[in-house]
Amino acid sequence: MKSLRNLSITVRLTLYFSITMAIVLYSVSGLLYANMRVKLNKKDEQELYHSMRFQQEMVTAISEKPSMTEQWQKDVFEFIAQQERLSLRIINPDGKVYIQSENMRVPPADFLPATATFRYQPWHYHAGKYKEKYLISATVFTLKNNQHWVVQAALNVSKNDEIIENYYQKMLLIAALAIILFSALGFWLARRGLSPLRTISAEMEKIHADDLHTRLSPQSWPTELNALAASFDQMMMRLEASFKKLNRFSSDISHELRAPINNLISAASVTQSKDRSHEEYQETLAAIVEEGERLSRMVSSMLFLARADNSREPLTKEWLNSRHEFEKLIDFYDVLAEEKNITLLSQGDVALLADPQLLQRALSNLLSNAIRHTDKNGEIILNAASNETLTWISIEDNGEGIAAEHLPLIFDRFYRIEAARSMTENTGLGLAIVKTIAEIHGGKIVVESEPGKGSKFILILPKPQRAMP
Q: How far apart are CA 200 and CA 214, in angstroms?
């Protein structure tokens, strides 16, 4: 079976077609052969029966007119002389052979006991390589004088068997030739029918890294291949988008890593160029520590995203209370909010099943972004709600908002709005991490924003079907 799977589709279709044709042709040949044999056997049976019936009619006539005995004997001789396949043997009431055909080969003892009803059986004659087949029958005729005459008849059916066997052999030969012809035709049809696949394969071979925009759907394909072409085009769209994202990611990561590394090298080089005061050394070390922490945060975020992409980020879900999670967030960010006189409010009290550390990390990223982009005396609302299937956790601010053209891209890695690029604490990975955390929980993150009026980030998580224990 494994070797069959390795064959080409064309060869497999040809093989299946040939096997099907062989089954059909040989089945039809067998049916025709069987039908012909039944009909010939029936014909031979009828011929033997009518011969015996003829003798019975002759005996009946003799029994009514004994003077016709000589006429019966004459008719029997003439009847026997005219038969090529039929052999007769007539046995008188004394049990002696009264008359028989010269070509009678069947011994008297091989016949069934003579009865008034017609019955027969096959009998085979062998003499070296010479073989013959007969249908033999014996019947008894009772005359009016109560004399019992036995008539034994043997019908040679060898030629009929020879004819039908020759016919069958020719049918098998013709069927074999037909199968070869149909196989060749099937191979040509299968190859012609699969030509669109070869065309698709040729089109695919032309695609390379710089030509990911190629699509198959604009061409006219058979109905069965339209779905394949559409699926391939969708795959190419995803690959093209992923390739662009990877290129942008590679470019951004080079830029993001180069900046802090250059800052570290520059700070160390400038400080090393000449003697500095104690305060200058302290300032340089502080700058180096700040850049090092930035690099550490960036590497940690990239490691988390890489592990999540490869489904290696452990997920330990627990039943959590939204109000309790909001209180922990507000306690941690309260001091930062007080610096800008921002009011933090929490609403809603729902139970949700999530990884507590990952949930806190996602909400922390959203809340820190909200505080960063909310003006003084602003307000941030943490809200939770749920229905039978979903749980919503939102963080809404009345800050600067996000322009519409940035909304589809803000969850991409290293994507930052230009105004925020100079902020060293922003790595451009915070919202990407939030999106990844939502996805590994089976949920998603959406955003609603309007410049000058604020933003609302909504974390949507699926709700387990079973109730909280």
A: 12
The first and second tokens of residue 246, run together, are: 């990877």
Tokens at 81, concatenated: 């002389």
Tell me which DSSP letter residue 110 carries.
G
Provide the token pair at 236.
Answer: 């190419």
Q: Evaluate whether 361 touches 402 at the Cβ level (below 8 Å).
A: no
Instruction: Map residue 455 onto helix, strand or coil.
Output: strand
- pLDDT, tens digit, 9 for 90 and up, residues 275-328: 777 777 787 777 778 777 777 777 776 677 767 666 666 778 889 999 999 998
pTM for the model: 0.49
- Cα 79 from Cα 300, distance rounded (Å): 115
Task: Provide DSSP, 127-156.
Answer: ETTEEEEEEEEEEEEE-TT--EEEEEEEEE
What letter would DSSP give residue 468? P
CA distance linking residue 321 with residue 328, whole number of Å: 11
Closest among 283, 276, 256 to 427, alpha carbons compared: 256
67, HSE (Cβ side, Cα atoms, 13 Å): 0
Between the two ends of the chain, the Cα-to-Cα distance in Å is: 52
What is the per-residue DSSP string for 6-37?
A: HS-HHHHHHHHHHHHHHHHHHHHHHHHHHHHH
